[in-house]
Amino acid sequence: MSDDIPVLEVAGLTAGYGRSQVLFGVDLTAPKTGAVALLGRNGAGKSTLLKTLIGELSPMGGIIKFDSVDTRKESTEKRVRRGMGYVPQEQGIFSTLTVQENLTLGAITQTDHIGIDMVLDFFPKLAERLDQQAGTLSGGERKMLAIGRALLSRPSLLLLDEPTEGVWVGVIEEIASRLELLAREISIVIVEQHVELALRIANYAYVMDRGGIALEGPSAQVQRDPELLRYLAP
């Protein structure tokens, strides 16, 4: 990973829904810059982990440290103010508002529009759709808008849940290339079903199975591991 203190430290994390436990002793770290891939079959606990990190779910036990601060009891809003960004598997946008309105709301805490200009430079397709209702965008454009809105809070850690799900294959590469650039500047934890793409973006990978970490290591090492297919098979 990195010799530096990680931006995110997770140890022994347990969480779930009501009395149904989903996460069992998860240990994970993310560096201050670079991407970490979170892989595993559906139901392995990946989305639950991201929801717990951002504060949508309260942990049952374990530790979550962001920038060396224990955030377990903090609200999602406070974690975002600290520098966490989150793009859920669902849209993460306001479908009835225009692209411009979505971005303006995302930048509501800013005193200028520099952030919006940066997002439009990052995703040029959005600049061509500013007056278009977000719900009428293509799947790829909606994902770009959701990522762009998250970036407007200027996060140091971005949690991405399936950023290429439902995206036309011709746009997947565009999103992936932007994420590769972004990972040079901030920390990213990415849940992604396109395994080769995720391992290309990320330097390090964790493979989840039944709510725990079953396999981890540098991306190239994990990709070569014969056990990988076992944990990805439906």
Walk me through this protein's architecture:
Helix content is 35%, strand content 26%. The chain has helices at residues 46-54, 76-82, 99-106, 114-122, 124-127, 139-151, 169-182, 195-201, 219-224, 228-232; strands spanning 8-17, 20-30, 34-39, 61-66, 69-70, 84-87, 157-161, 187-191, 204-209, 212-218. The chain has 234 residues and is an alpha/beta fold. It has two domains: 1-83 and 155-234, P-loop containing nucleotide triphosphate hydrolases (Rossmann fold); 90-154, no CATH class. It starts with 7 loop residues before the first strand and ends with a helix. Strand 1 (8-17) and strand 2 (20-30) form a beta hairpin.
Share of helix, binned: 25-40%
Oligomerization state: single chain
Cα-atom Rg, whole angstroms?
A: 17 Å
Separation of the first and last Cα atoms: 29 Å
Q: How many separate domains make up the residues?
A: 2
Mean pLDDT: 94
Number of strands: 10
Question: What's the order of the H and E elements?
Answer: EEEHEEHEHHHHEHEHEEHH
Structural class, by secondary structure, is alpha/beta
Number of helices: 10
Largest sheet: 6 strands, mixed
Task: Assign the CATH topology of the largest domain.
Answer: Rossmann fold
Strand content: 25-35%
Q: What's the overall geometry?
A: globular
The poorly predicted ranges are none
Going by CATH, what is the homologous superfamily of the largest domain?
P-loop containing nucleotide triphosphate hydrolases
Q: Can you name the CATH architecture of the largest domain?
A: 3-Layer(aba) Sandwich
How is the largest sheet built, in terms of strand order?
6-7-8-3-9-10
CATH domain class name of the largest domain = Alpha Beta
